[in-house]
Write a structure and sequence with these properties.
mainly alpha
């Protein structure tokens, strides 16, 4: 219990000093969350391996966009790819249709 308490104290101090140095805003993890949701939709939501494939594909496409154009375009291209997948293959790359109407 003493070791856990000391580790909590040290981690709290380290976290406060890091926030003081780098800054804090309410949207600090929003880009990571949006990228993970786009990767899940691209890969398919029924399988964990499909999400990994979607994340790898999205990361590769973002790296190519940064290399060819600029870092400012990576999220725009991500959303264009998301729209293409939602229009033409909403179940994702490795997904399957759950219900036929």
């Amino acid at each position: 219990m003493l070791v856990f308490g000391l580790s909590d104290i040290f981690l709290t101090i380290a976290g406060c000093l890091t926030v003081y140095e780098t800054g804090l805003d309410p949207h600090i993890g929003m880009l990571v969350l949006i990228n993970s949701i786009v990767a899940m939709i691209i890969g398919g939501s029924g399988n964990f391996n499909a999400c990994i494939v979607g994340g790898m594909l999205l990361g590769l496409i973002q790296a190519i966009v940064i290399y060819q154009f600029s870092a400012n375009w990576q999220y725009a291209i991500s959303f264009v790819i998301l729209l293409i997948f939602l229009l033409f293959r909403p179940q994702g790359i490795m997904g399957y249709k759950k219900r036929l109407v």
